[in-house]
Design goal:
The protein is an all-alpha fold and 512 residues long. It is built from 19 helices and no strands. It has a single domain, classed as Growth Hormone, Chain: A. It has helices at residues 7-13, 17-40, 42-50, 89-117, 120-143, 149-163, 166-178, 184-190, 193-208, 215-234, 274-280, 294-298, 303-331, 336-364, 367-388, 393-423, 432-460, 465-481, 484-509.
Length: 512
């Protein structure tokens, strides 16, 4: 007597070939961008080692003898890494951060154009290989004993430029496979690659930060380059390349979210047999969609507002990304490794915030309102974290997670679900390549804020950390203000929807 088919096998067979390919692409793009963010994080962890109070490295054995007798006990810079051993080290570290972020902001606007016109597999693979190379070269400065500021600045500029290959490419690839079948919740989960990458980068850098800090960069660089090779071997740009059913793109922004022909839920979802899917959703070869112009993308309603909002939201997020470990190190007096590990809780909160933002915005059908409410709550929470967050480990853990959720939630929502919503505008006609340009404009504008935040933090922090937090709170409020018009439009839409619902109820209650 034969046994029944194993439950696990039945589960696997429940998914069609199309579903497996789509799932693998979603996972691969998740891992790709996790590596990009993993390679950006080590600098924030290593900062506390580039400049530290070296007198703490000498411990007197008795009144007349010291463990290290080659340095005076009052010499506080002998163990720092030149050129960051100067009193203006915060400005120098800010300049290194800014070199990467300014290059990234400028390159993002250009990268969207290249991403539309070059094969994504080659473009993304080359970008990851070069990103891994430049990340490793920064760490090799430790082993080569390089103490020239221009070397670290140049490496960061090059790394910032090549890292722009990532975001427009992964968004376009996901667009090719999923079309309009994107939802706030799904994209919120997918976008957790940002926080997962930050967490992995912090943990990996923390392993070597107190010993050979160069390895904190070399190891993530090798992993990123290896992922580039994996991308070259396995990335599939279009469903048609492997005889999968292409998604159906639909236009208008007012279109029903649960359209039966949505590729995530409808007959083109790949949940039926290949013959049925081909019969219902035949693939007709057509002309290659033209790229949208820069001005044409700016004219799409909501692009300018969300771009400017992201500028200030990303300013706050990236200031935490680059300066939080040093802040914890200086204020709470943890070790460099402990500060790096504790800073990962901010990114844990970011994962939670991104998922919640997508879920809530789906439920209320209001992306701008969700972002505005979370940003409004983030301002007082940052104030509280600065004043009471370092008074105990429990309060620090809770405040970091809450602040991470409220700061990174809107940032995650705008760069994913909002971009997807704008990509379904009727002027784009479902053009996934045009979505690359729209995404690059939104994220490129946000990257200007990402460059300004760490720079301002480096300039302001010598006057006191309180002033840095006042700057972050001000930026947070400005991000809210840019969404006011869109929030008002969403409220008007809700009001109109309620009026229609009441009218329908009255018509049913009092038929003519």
């Amino acid at each position: 007597m034969r046994s029944s088919l194993a439950p696990g096998v039945r589960f696997l067979r429940a998914f069609s070939r199309d579903s497996w390919f789509r799932g693998s692409i979603l996972l691969l793009t998740f891992l790709i961008y996790t590596c990009y963010h993993m390679s950006r994080k080590p600098i924030s962890v290593v900062k506390s080692r580039l400049h530290q109070n070296c007198s703490e490295q000498i411990r007197p054995i008795n009144d007349s003898q010291e463990i290290n007798d080659t340095h005076a006990i009052n010499d506080t810079t002998w163990c720092s890494w030149a050129p960051f051993d100067q009193n203006n080290y915060k400005q120098l570290l800010g300049a290194v951060d800014n070199a990467f972020l300014v290059a990234y902001a400028i390159g993002m606007f250009i990268s969207g154009i290249f991403g539309e016109r070059l094969p994504l597999r080659y473009y993304l693979s080359a970008g990851m290989l070069l990103s891994g190379l430049f990340t490793a070269l920064f760490g090799l400065g430790y082993f080569w004993k390089i103490h020239m500021l221009w070397y670290f600045v140049l490496i960061q500029i090059c790394n910032g430029l090549v890292q722009t290959t990532g975001w427009p490419s992964v968004v376009t690839c996901v667009g090719n496979w999923f079309g309009k079948g994107k939802r706030g919740l799904i994209m919120g989960v997918w976008n957790s690659h940002t926080s997962v990458g930050n967490i992995l980068g912090s943990l990996i850098a923390g392993v070597w930060v107190n010993a050979q800090w160069g390895l904190s960069f070399v190891v993530p660089g090798i992993i990123t380059a290896a992922m580039g090779v994996f991308t070259f071997l396995f990335l599939i740009e279009y469903p048609e390349d492997v005889d999968c059913t292409p998604p159906q793109h639909h236009g208008g922004p007012g279109e029903d979210q649960d359209n039966p022909e949505d590729p995530a839920t409808g007959p083109c979802s790949g949940k039926e047999s290949s013959l049925e899917s081909a019969a219902r959703c035949p693939h007709e070869p057509g002309a290659e969609p033209a790229a949208i112009s820069f001005l044409g993308a700016l004219r799409i309603p909501g692009v300018v507002e969300f771009s400017l909002c992201l500028l200030f939201a990303k300013l706050v997020s990236y200031t935490f990304l680059y300066w939080l470990p040093l802040y914890i190190f200086n204020v709470a007096h943890f070790s460099a490794k402990e500060a790096g590990d504790l800073s990962t809780l901010f990114d844990v909160g970011g994962i939670i915030g991104g998922i919640l933002a997508g879920l809530i915005s789906d439920y209320i059908n209001g992306r701008a309102t969700t972002c505005c409410v979370m940003l409004t709550l983030a301002a007082p929470m940052m104030f509280l974290y600065n004043h009471i967050g370092q008074k105990g480990i429990a309060s620090s853990v809770v405040m970091l997670i809450v602040c991470g959720a409220l700061v990174n939630g809107p940032y995650a929502l705008i760069t994913t679900a909002v971009s997807a919503d704008l990509g379904t505008h009727e002027s784009l006609k479902g053009n996934a390549k045009a979505l690359s340009t729209v995404t690059a404009i939104i994220d490129g504008t946000g990257s200007i804020g990402a460059a300004l935040g760490p720079l301002l933090a480096g300039l302001i922090s010598p006057t006191g950390w309180n002033n840095v937090f006042y700057m972050l709170i001000s930026a947070d409020i400005l991000a809210c203000l840019f969404l006011c018009r869109l929030v008002y439009k969403e409220m008007q839409a809700w009001k109109a929807s309620l009026s229609r619902g009441r009218g329908s109820s009255l018509a049913l209650t009092h038929p003519r």
